Amino acid sequence: MNDTIVAVASPPGVGAVSLIRLSGSEVLSIAGKMLESFSSRQVRPRQVRRDWVQTPSGERVDDVLVTYFGGPASYTGEDVLEITGHGGILVTRKIVEQALAQGARLAEPGEFSQRAFLNGKLDLTQAEAVMDLIHAQTDLAARAAREQLSGKLGGEVAELRETLINVVAHVEAYIDFPDEDISPETGSALDQSLADVASKVRSLLGTAKRGRLLREGARLAIIGAPNAGKSSLLNALLGYERAIVSAVAGTTRDTVEEVMDFDGVPVRVIDTAGLRDSGDAIEVEGIARARERMKDADVIIELVDASQAPAERLAEEALLVLNKVDLGIHPGWGGEEALQISAATGDGLEELRSRVRSSLWEEDRGTSSGALIAINTRHQDALRRALDAVEEARAMLQNGEEPEFAALPLREALNAVGEVGGRIDTEEILGSIFGQFCIGK
């Protein structure tokens, strides 16, 4: 972490511009050697300057714009230099090579954000939000990431941690200083504090599904008999011809998947092969894959041809949707609770989107800030352990056991909550998180 690091922070490939980022204590020294007219005595933070990157022999490499951010008022908390050059693969590589030649080393994945965390510029929830924002597929996912990056989740966790610190401090002081007449507070006050912690932790845990949906997207499987209009529905939802549509039964032999935005929730819509008995080996494999997708789906739409007589349901848990209502509805569907649509005309599609979204999403409630909190899997694991430990401590105190017996689970709860924001020294957690970052971030 004492090295000065360099990486390309823009996407790989050819573009109008590329961004090369350096961070570390030797940034100004390296810049003075690789830039033609750069002077550490003249440079001003956050002022864009035009310069030339050059080789040690003085050969010009690229005409660039240079911005210096002096630490600690920078993303990483260290001196940072950003070089904006032309976006060719070759010229970008040559700029990085000049930085390496002057003493920098290539950054590890996520090392810029890891340094920001270690220098107190971000907590772990904010660092994770950087990647969430980069990978956001919908406006709602981006909003959740922005709120987490601004410290909303970190603030909720900090309040929990502060409460637990006070409880642990009081219990341990009672144990360590028996002659000081410290009240053990084994009664209602201590129990109420722990009850409040448990309630807030449950509230945060209740956002785990929301977090998975925003980060990974929901899985929506469209199933039905051949020629029910599954591929037509996929195309209608997408707004363009993605799947082949034909009057020939069994046209869809494999699953076809696309991600789309259902009112802010990213949904992976899966068009499956028509479910029927078949002697065609390829179609049989497609049907087997369709049944596998049904097992993994968050929502299943069972699509039927409304103009045909009802047949045996394929999945009782599925949302029944009558398609082709523009061709008329068979009398056998009378009294059946089902959503009526026409993939051909677009009738009913907005209501279908709304029904799917409402079945997946629950609005925020219970968080003190009113923010769009959406915890990830790592947060969920730590908070579950914290909740178990708090409940164990509460049970001990309610059963009349001495406070010292509750000290251990209370300390476990404090450590578990601390893991969420990175307020404990756990290198394994840091490596797991920052190893998922892209180079240059």
Describe the structure.
The protein is an alpha/beta fold. It is 43% helix and 17% strand. It contains 14 helices and 12 strands. The strands form 2 sheets. A 6-stranded mixed β-sheet has the order 3-4-5-2-1-6, covered by helices on one side. Strands 8-9-7-10-11-12 form a 6-stranded mixed β-sheet, sandwiched between helices. Strand 1 (5-8) and strand 2 (15-23) form a beta hairpin. It is flat and about 85 Å long. The chain starts with a strand and ends in a 7-residue tail after the last helix.
Terminal Cα separation, in Å? 15 Å
Mean pLDDT: 84
The major beta sheet can be summarized as: 6 strands, mixed
Helix content: 40-55%
Strand order of the largest sheet: 3-4-5-2-1-6
User: Which structural class best describes the helix and strand composition?
Assistant: alpha/beta
Contiguous low-pLDDT stretches (5 residues minimum) are 243-254, 276-280
> What is the 3D form?
flat
Number of helices: 14
Q: Please indicate the percent range of residues in DSSP E strands (runs of 2 or more).
A: 15-25%
The total of beta strands comes to 12
Order of SSEs: EEHEEEHEHHHHHHEHEEHEEEHHHH
Quick summary:
The protein has 441 residues and is an alpha/beta fold. The protein is 43% helix and 17% strand.
Supply the key terms.
441 residues; alpha/beta; 6-stranded mixed sheet; 43% helix; 17% strand
Layout of helices and strands, plus pairs?
Elements: E1 5-8, E2 15-23, H1 27-34, E3 48-54, E4 60-69, E5 80-87, H2 89-101, E6 105-106, H3 111-118, H4 124-135, H5 139-149, H6 152-176, H7 188-205, H8 208-216, E7 218-224, H9 230-238, E8 256-262, E9 265-271, H10 281-296, E10 299-305, E11 319-323, E12 339-340, H11 349-360, H12 377-398, H13 403-421, H14 427-434
Parallel strand pairs: 1-6, 7-9, 7-10, 10-11, 11-12
Antiparallel strand pairs: 1-2, 2-5, 3-4, 4-5, 8-9
Helix pairs in contact: 4-5, 6-7, 6-13, 7-12, 12-13
